[in-house]
Amino acid sequence: MNSTIDLLKSHRSIRVFKDQPIAQETINELVEAGQAAATSSFIQACTVIQVNDPEKRQQLATMAGGQSYVETAPTFLVFCADMKRHQLACEMNDAQMQSGFTEQFITATVDCGLFAQNVAIAAESLDLGIVYIGGLRNKIADVSKLLDLPDLVYPVFGMCIGVPDQNPEVKPRLPLSVVLKQDSYDDTKDRERLADYDSHVKTYYQSRGSNLKETGWTDQISGMLVKEARPHMLPFLQERGFIKR
Question: Which part of the chain is the Nitroreductase domain (predicted)?
Answer without folding.
Answer: 9-162
